[in-house]
Design brief:
Two copies of one chain form a homodimer. Chain A is an alpha/beta fold and about 475 residues long. Chain A folds into three domains: about 240 residues, Glucose-6-phosphate isomerase like protein, domain 1 (Rossmann fold, 3-Layer(aba) Sandwich); about 160 residues, Rossmann fold; about 35 residues, no CATH class. Helix content of chain A is about 45%, strand content about 15%. Chain A is built from 19 helices and twelve strands. In chain A, strand 8 and strand 9 form a beta hairpin. At the A-B interface, strand 1, helix 5, helix 6, helix 7 and helix 13 of A face strand 1, helix 5, helix 6, helix 7 and helix 13 of B.
Chain lengths: ~475, ~475
C-alpha cells in the first residue's frame, strides 16, 4: 500500500477570517496565542515521555497481543455465529465505529459465507430490558460468544448483563460452557472483573492501566471485536502509527491534530460551543458517535488545572451528509454562528453506481442522467460547504482518500491527539471524568447499596417537586 | 384501552428557578411574557382556522386513506419480503422513528413468521453509493416493493434512486413489473413525480399540499411504511388526536406542547442554544432524530417575520440513556450551562429481565442481584436527573406510560405543536426552509444544470483556498 496516497487531509480554509470573513479566525488570533501553543506542544511531548498518555504508544507495543487475538479468532470463528459485545461508552462506541466503517452496512443480514466465515456482531450497551430480551430472539446461545468489557468491573450496566448471561449459559448449556462462551477484557490485576475472569477460567485480554475508556479503541477493547469480524487490526494499528508520525510534527500549523485542537480552542473562546461532525459517507457515521464521547467527556469540565470553576466544553453533534442536508443544514446555514462544522469526505467510495439516462426532458431529473451517485454526493458536499461558507459559518473538511483499516486507524488517532492538545490549550485534565460520579453515587444510594447512606439522606432532602410543574 | 392511563406527562420542575436555582426560569420570566404568550396562543388558533397548519387536522381527515393503505398492505404483504423506502428528511426520519419505537429492534433479522407475515423495512435516505450497492446484497428484487416519497419530485437524492431502481426493475423483471414493485407518495397534482406516477400507472398516495416534509409523518409518508410493517396506524392517529385535545387547552401553563415551546423560548433567550433529547429507551432513540429535523429546520432561521436578521435556533442533540451516561453526561454535568436536557422516560417497558443473585459478596455487584434491568434503567434515569439538578443544568422529563402506537402518536403530535408554538414566540416562520436553497442551487450549478449559469459564475468567483490551510 502507498501510505502517502492514503494520508488524511485537513482543509481549514473556511475557518479563516481572510476567506470566510469576520466570523473566522485571523492570523492575529494565532499570533496572540504563540506562547500558549508552544507550551501545549511541549506539554504533549513531556506528558507522553512521562507516561501520562499511554494510549499514544498503542500502535507500537501490541505485536504479541495482535498475534494472540488473531489466533483466538482463528480458533473460534467457525463455531461462532454471533459475537456479542457487552460494553458501554468507549467499549461500545469504538467497536461499532470501526465495524460500520470497514464492514458491510448490513453485515448481520449476510450469510456466513458472505461474511467470509466471520460471525455477526451485536453490541449490547444499554440496560433497556426490551433490547436484551430481543437479542435472544435473534441469537442462539450455543453459537454465541460474549465479550464482557469493563476495566474496573464496576460498570453496573455491563456487569449486570454479564451476570444475566453467565447464569443463562450455566442453566442452558451447563457450568462448563461459561469458559467457552465468555471472553473478558479488563484490567491486568485491579478491579472486580479480573478475579472473576481468573476464577471462571475465562480467556481474557488486558486493558492497559494507563488507558482510559474513550482512548481504548486500539487496545483489545476494539481490536478483538474488529478481528472477530475479519477486520485487519494490524493495518488499523499501522494507520494509527502513520498518523502518530504526523502528529509528532512540532509545528502546530503543519500538524493536523494540533491544528484541529487549536482551531476548536479559538472557536470556543469566540463562543462556538457546538462541534458538528458531518460525514459524507454512511461508513463514517458512527465515527461521529465515537468522537462525541471523546470530545464531550474529555473537554467538558467544571474546573481547570488551577482549580478555577470554568464550566467549559463543546457539545458534539453527529450529522450525515447528504441526508441531513434535509434535516440540519437549514439551521447550520441560517441559525446562530455558534458552531464549527467538520465535514468528513471520501475521495473514492468503495462502490460506484450510475444514474440511468432517463427522463432527459424533465428539468428536475434530466441533469442527473448519466452521472454517478459518487459524483452526486461529492458535489452535494462541496455545495453544502459553499453554502456554509456563504453564510459565514466556520467549517473545515477532513478528507479520507478511501475508507479502510489504514485510514480509520489514522482518523481515530488524529482525533485522540487533537483532544489531548485541546485539553492542554484549555488548561484542563482531558483524561478524567469526575462529573459522572454524582449520577453513579445517586444510583447506588437509590438502590440502597451499603455505604451510600449519606447520599441517600442527601437525595431525600432535595426540594420537593411541585404538582403544577407537571402537566 | 384506557386513554387517560396512556397520557404523556411533562415534568418541568427542574426548569424552574425555585427548584434548580438561578440558572432556571422564574415565575417572573413568565409574567413578563404574558402578552406574548397570549398572542402566540391566539395565533395558533387562528393559523389553524385559516389553513396555515393543515398537519393539525391529519388525525381526523384520513379515514379513507387509512382504509386504502390497510387494503393495499393486505393485498401485497404476502409477496413482499422487503419494503424499501426511498426518501430523505422527514420521509425517512418519520418512518424510521415509528418503526424503531413500535417494532422489534432486530426486525429485519426475524423470520417472516416472527414478523407476523409483514416484510422487512429498509430506508434508503442517502446517496452514498456504498450503501445502495450493499442493499442489493440483502434484498431480492423480485420480492421487493419500493416506496418512492417526494412531494415535489425534485429531490435529487430520492429521484435518482428511483431512476436507478426503475431501470433495474425494467431490465431484470421486465417493463410491466414497475407497476407492481413501485408505489409513489407525492403531491396530488403538482411536481415532477405525480405525472411520472400516473404515466407509469403506479399505485400512489398523496401528500397534502399544506403539509411540509417534517410535519408529514402522519400522512401516507409515514402511514404506509408503518402499516406495511404491521403497525396499527389507526391507533397512531388516535394518539395524535388525543394529544390534539390536550394541545387545544388555551392556558399554556396546562398545555404541555405550548409549555415545552415556552420553556425552550425562554431558555434560548437566556443563551441556551442546545436542545438535548435523552431517551431512556432504545425504542425512542430515533424519535430524537425525527425531533432534530423538526426542531432544527423549523426554528433555525435567519430572519424574523419583520425581516430583521436574527440568526436564531437551537441545535438539537440526540442522546440515549443509560448508554450516554458513559459518553455525554460528563459534559452535561460539568460543561457550560448552555443546554436544556429533555429526558424521555418510560413507566413500563414491554419486557422484563432480572439480574441473578450471584456475586453477593462483591460490593460492586452484590447490590444488583435480584433487581431487574427495568429498575436499573429507571433508577439511572432518576439519578442522572438528580446529577443535572445538582449541577444546575436545566432539564425536564417527558414520561411515556408505555411505548405503543397510541403514545407514539401523542409524542409526534406534541412536538409538532410545540415547534409551531415556539415559532410563534420567536416571531419566525416555522414552516419554511429557505436556507437549504443555497446548497441545492450550488449543486445544480456544479452539475452544469441549464439555468444555473449565473450561480456557476458566482461559484467560480469565490476566493481561492490557500495551500497553507490544507495539511
Amino acid at each position: 500500500m502507498n501510505k502517502e496516497a492514503m494520508k488524511l487531509r485537513l482543509d481549514f480554509n473556511n475557518m479563516m477570517a481572510n476567506l470566510i470573513g469576520e466570523k473566522g479566525i485571523s492570523e492575529e488570533d494565532f499570533a496572540i496565542l504563540e506562547g500558549k501553543i508552544e507550551a501545549a506542544e511541549k506539554a504533549m511531548v513531556e506528558k507522553r515521555a512521562n507516561g501520562g498518555m499511554d494510549w499514544r504508544d498503542l500502535p507500537y507495543n501490541q505485536d504479541e497481543i495482535v498475534e494472540d487475538i488473531v489466533d483466538y479468532v482463528e480458533a473460534n470463528k467457525d463455531w461462532v455465529e454471533s459475537f456479542v459485545v457487552l460494553g458501554i461508552g468507549g467499549s461500545a462506541l469504538g467497536p461499532i465505529a470501526v465495524q460500520q466503517a470497514i464492514n458491510h452496512p448490513h453485515w448481520n443480514e449476510l450469510s456466513k459465507e458472505k461474511r467470509k466465515g466471520y460471525p455477526k456482531l451485536y453490541v449490547v450497551d444499554n440496560v433497556d430490558p426490551e433490547k436484551l430480551v430481543a437479542l435472544f430472539d435473534v441469537i442462539d446461545l450455543e453459537t454465541s460468544l460474549f465479550n464482557v468489557i469493563s476495566k474496573s468491573g464496576g460498570t453496573s450496566e455491563t456487569m449486570s448483563q454479564f451476570m444475566i448471561i453467565k447464569e443463562k449459559i450455566e442453566n442452558e448449556l451447563g457450568k462448563d460452557a461459561v469458559k467457552k462462551h465468555i471472553v473478558a477484557t479488563t484490567d491486568a490485576s485491579k478491579g472486580t472483573l479480573r478475579p472473576i475472569a481468573d476464577e471462571e477460567g475465562l480467556k481474557s485480554y488486558i486493558i492497559p492501566a494507563g488507558v482510559g475508556g474513550r482512548f481504548s479503541e486500539l487496545t483489545p477493547v476494539g481490536l478483538l471485536p474488529a478481528a472477530m469480524c475479519g477486520i485487519d487490526i494490524k493495518t488499523l494499528l499501522e494507520g494509527a502509527a502513520y498518523m502518530d508520525e504526523i502528529c509528532k510534527i512540532d509545528n502546530t500549523f503543519k500538524n493536523p491534530a494540533h491544528m484541529y485542537g487549536l482551531l476548536q480552542y479559538i472557536s470556543m473562546q469566540q463562543g462556538k460551543n457546538i462541534s458538528i461532525v458531518m460525514a459524507y459517507a454512511d461508513g463514517l457515521k458512527f465515527i461521529a458517535d465515537w468522537y462525541a464521547q471523546l470530545w464531550a467527556e474529555s473537554l467538558g469540565k467544571k474546573y481547570d488545572l488551577d482549580g478555577n470553576v470554568v464550566n467549559v466544553g463543546q457539545t458534539p453533534v453527529k450529522a450525515l451528509g447528504a441526508t441531513d442536508q434535509h434535516s440540519q443544514v437549514q439551521l447550520y446555514a441560517e441559525g446562530p454562528h455558534d458552531k464549527v462544522v467538520l465535514f468528513m469526505g471520501v475521495d473514492k467510495y468503495r462502490s460506484e453506481i450510475t444514474i440511468p439516462e432517463i427522463y432527459g426532458d424533465v428539468p428536475n431529473l434530466g441533469f442527473l442522467g448519466g452521472a454517478t451517485h459518487n459524483k452526486l454526493i461529492h458535489t452535494e458536499q462541496m455545495a453544502t460547504e459553499y453554502a456554509l461558507f456563504k453564510a459565514e459559518q466556520t467549517n473545515m473538511t477532513l478528507t479520507v482518500p478511501e475508507i479502510n483499516e489504514f485510514t480509520v486507524g489514522q482518523i481515530l488517532y488524529l482525533f485522540e491527539v487533537a483532544t489531548g492538545f485541546a485539553g492542554e490549550l484549555m488548561n484542563i485534565n482531558a483524561f478524567d471524568q469526575p462529573g459522572v460520579e454524582e449520577g453513579k453515587n445517586a444510583t447506588y444510594a437509590m438502590f440502597g447499596r451499603p455505604g451510600y447512606e449519606e447520599k441517600k439522606k442527601e437525595l431525600d432532602a432535595r426540594p420537593e417537586k411541585k404538582d403544577k410543574y407537571i402537566i
